């Protein structure tokens, strides 16, 4: 079973990336954007990681890169 092992939020808290450990031991990521539509608030997926990542450390690097790219915010990795 897949398991979310870490969530990284952008400074504005409008974007997040989940690091997921897969059954086979590899990792993947998913990117979400916070949406507010017609009184409903929810995390909307905007990118599902289709590539497999070999280690948690590499998954952290990929997640940070994705958070920077999608949010266009300055990400201070000390606060993640």
Main pleated-sheet profile: 4 strands, antiparallel
Helix content: 10-25%
State the end-to-end distance. 26 Å
Strand content: 35-45%
Computed Rg:
13 Å
Q: What would you say this structure looks like, in words?
A:
This protein is an alpha+beta fold. It has one domain. 20% of the residues lie in helices and 42% in strands. A 4-stranded antiparallel sheet has the order 1-2-3-4, covered by helices on one side. The chain is globular and about 40 Å long. The termini are far apart.
What is the compact description of this entry?
20% of the residues lie in helices and 42% in strands. With 80 residues, the chain is an alpha+beta fold. The N and C termini lie far apart (26 Å).
Task: Provide tags for this entry.
single chain, 80 residues, alpha+beta, four-stranded antiparallel sheet, 1 helix, 4 strands, globular
Helix-strand layout with pairing:
Blueprint: E1 3-9, E2 15-21, E3 27-37, E4 40-48, H1 56-71
Antiparallel strand pairs: 1-2, 2-3, 3-4
């Amino acid at each position: 079973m897949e398991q979310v092992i870490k969530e990284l939020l952008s400074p504005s808290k409008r974007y997040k990336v989940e690091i997921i450990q897969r059954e086979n031991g590899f990792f993947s990521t998913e990117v979400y954007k916070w949406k507010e539509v017609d009184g409903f608030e929810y995390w909307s997926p905007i990118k599902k990681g289709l590539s497999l990542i070999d280690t948690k450390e590499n998954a952290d690097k990929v997640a940070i890169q994705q958070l920077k790219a999608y949010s266009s915010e300055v990400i201070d990795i000390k606060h993640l």
